[in-house]
Amino acid sequence: MNIMILACGKMKKGALSELISHYHKQIHWSVKIKEINISESDPVTKNHKENKEIKGSLLPEAYVIALDETGKDFKSREIAGLIDQQQQSSTKHIQIIIGGVDGLNPETLNKAHVTLRFGQQTWPHKLVRVMLYEQLYRVQSILDSHPYHRD
């Protein structure tokens, strides 16, 4: 299974990128990040361009997960269930969207099969990447019956 993370913004080297690298090395799925880095001073234009590039990057055959503050709260086992269902359905591509500062527009959100969030708090986008990688590792551990995950 191939997982592509479409993430707005550019991750610089540092503590957060080191955490991502730590989890990335432990995940046996193919996980890649496509950074969408739009240089635009007008926030409305920037958001429009980000959403346009995200939509243009979506594969028609992919199962799409959007991370958005309007999404549903999922427990780790529920996320594992979604991923397992896609594996059982022989889905080859999962794409996960992390929008920009102003989020995803309704047209982009409608492209997603499921929309989830990491709680009600506001999180910096770069930290969301770390949290996503940790969840992917946790999901893999759950599906492999590894004792890493505890209920």
Number of strands: 5
Overall geometric form:
globular
Ranges with pLDDT <50 over ≥5 residues? none
Biggest sheet descriptor: 5 strands, parallel
CATH-defined architecture: 3-Layer(aba) Sandwich
CATH H-level superfamily title: SPOUT methyltransferase, trefoil knot domain
Structural class estimated from helices and strands: alpha/beta
Q: Per CATH, what is the topology?
A: Alpha/beta knot
N-to-C span:
26 Å
Oligomer kind: single chain
Reading the helices and strands in chain order gives EHEHEHEHEH
A few lines on this structure:
With 151 residues, the chain is an alpha/beta fold. The protein contains five helices and five strands, in the order E-H-E-H-E-H-E-H-E-H. A five-stranded parallel beta sheet has the order 2-1-4-3-5.
Overview of the molecule:
The chain has 151 residues and is an alpha/beta fold. The protein has a single domain (2-143), classed as Alpha/beta knot. The chain is 42% helix and 23% strand. It has helices at 15-26, 43-57, 76-88, 106-109, 125-143, and strands spanning 2-8, 30-36, 63-73, 93-98, 114-117. The mean pLDDT is 94.
Topology (SSEs and partners):
Blueprint: E1 2-8, H1 15-26, E2 30-36, H2 43-57, E3 63-73, H3 76-88, E4 93-98, H4 106-109, E5 114-117, H5 125-143
Parallel strand pairs: 1-2, 1-4, 3-4, 3-5
Helix pairs in contact: 1-5, 3-5
Features:
151 residues; Alpha/beta knot; alpha/beta; single chain; 5 helices; five-stranded parallel β-sheet
